[in-house]
């Protein structure tokens, strides 16, 4: 009886041991699955977070590239090619990071590519910003040169104006001025003898006599004298082809002659024969030389 009980107890113990082993195995399996699942979840979270960070980093790099491109500089072929390559790399990384599944190896490769892209764009932008600074410096130099040239041009214009004014003053000061201007009317007889008259009906010519005011600045040489005669109605008696310039304007003259000026108190005379009949009234005469008014006088014919 005792042996039979021992056999039963031994069998129960074996069952208990087996159950214990099974339970321990199940617990181990569950623990392994739990730990493994947790690690997988943590790895997924880590990969997903890194993908989001890399996407944000790529967008920042693209913004930096756009910022440099917004300077509107004329880029060299090399810089244009670099920018094209950078944008192609950005587009490729965006596509890669949009994929739902990404292995740790691919993620690590993407990290390296983003880092390389960051350095690439930084160097590219440094070149562009340096070019922009150089352009700004050149613009400042150009503006400074333009301001200098403008200032020098103004100085030259002012100097030319002052020289012109000085020359005008010198020319005015050197011009001849008539003094003691007198006008007389003459009748010309058949034998050529001139008889002074005061009546318009007998007058045939006017004779203008004058002297020159002493002027050491005046050129001692021949000077062209122009005579303008106005009839009693104020009309200029002149040939339309007789033109000269004086007092800053072009005008007609009645008669002209040349005199030799030597600053020696010489008296001069100009004669004008009227091709028409004189009329009663006051005749005015004006003398010009060297582009300026020289003197005036008048005569009354009855």
Quick recap of the structure?
The chain is an alpha+beta fold and 302 residues long.
Architecture overview:
- The structure is a single chain.
- This protein is of the alpha+beta class.
- It has 2 domains: 2-135, no CATH class; 178-301, Immunoglobulin-like, CATH 2.60.40.
- 53% of the residues lie in helices and 25% in strands.
- The protein has 3 helices and 11 strands; from the N terminus they run αααβββββββββββ.
- Strands 4, 5, 8, 10 and 11 form a 5-stranded antiparallel beta sheet that branches. A 4-stranded antiparallel beta sheet has the order 2-1-3-9, with no helix packed on it.
- Strand 1 and strand 2 form a beta hairpin.
- Helix 1 (2-69) runs parallel beside helix 3.
- The longest helix has 71 residues, at 104-174.
- It is rod-shaped.
- The termini are far apart.
- Residues 39-46 have low confidence and may be disordered.
Task: Give me the secondary-structure topology.
Blueprint: H1 2-69, H2 77-97, H3 104-174, E1 178-188, E2 194-197, E3 205-212, E4 222-230, E5 236-237, E6 243-246, E7 249-252, E8 255-260, E9 267-273, E10 281-289, E11 292-301
Antiparallel strand pairs: 1-2, 1-3, 3-9, 4-5, 4-8, 4-10, 6-7, 10-11
Helix pairs in contact: 1-2, 1-3, 2-3
**Mean pLDDT over the full residue set:** 78
What is the approximate shape? rod-shaped
The helical percent reads 40-55%
| Beta strand % | 15-25%
Distance between the termini: 194 Å
Order of helices and strands: HHHEEEEEEEEEEE
The number of strands is 11
**Count of alpha/pi helices:** 3
């Amino acid at each position: 009886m005792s042996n039979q009980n021992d056999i039963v107890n031994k069998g129960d113990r074996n069952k208990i041991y087996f159950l214990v082993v099974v339970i321990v195995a199940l617990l181990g399996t569950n623990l392994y699955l739990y730990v493994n699942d947790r690690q997988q979840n943590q790895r997924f979270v880590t990969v997903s977070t890194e993908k989001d960070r890399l996407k944000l980093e790529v967008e920042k790099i693209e913004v930096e590239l756009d910022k440099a491109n917004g300077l509107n500089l004329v880029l060299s072929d090399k810089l244009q090619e670099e920018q094209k390559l950078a944008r192609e790399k950005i587009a490729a990384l965006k596509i890669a990071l949009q994929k739902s599944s990404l292995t740790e190896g691919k993620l690590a490769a993407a990290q390296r590519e983003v880092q390389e892209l960051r350095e690439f764009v930084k160097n590219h932008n440094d070149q562009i910003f340096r070019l922009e600074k150089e352009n700004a410096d050149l613009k400042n130099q150009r503006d400074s040169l333009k301001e200098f040239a403008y200032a020098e041009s103004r100085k030259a214009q002012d100097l030319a104006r002052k020289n012109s004014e000085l020359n005008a003053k010198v020319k005015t000061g050197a011009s001849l001025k008539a003094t003691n201007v007198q006008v007389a009317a003459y009748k010309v007889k058949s034998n050529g003898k001139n008889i002074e008259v005061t009546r318009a009906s007998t007058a045939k010519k006017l004779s203008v006599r004058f002297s020159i005011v002493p002027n050491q600045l005046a050129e001692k040489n021949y000077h062209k004298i122009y005579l303008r005669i106005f009839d009693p109605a104020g009309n200029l008696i002149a040939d339309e082809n007789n033109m000269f310039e004086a007092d800053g304007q072009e005008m007609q003259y009645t008669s002209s002659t040349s005199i030799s000026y030597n600053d020696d108190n010489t008296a001069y005379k100009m004669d004008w024969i009227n091709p028409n009949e004189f009329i009663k009234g006051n005749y005015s005469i004006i003398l010009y030389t060297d582009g300026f008014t020289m003197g005036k006088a008048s005569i009354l014919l009855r």
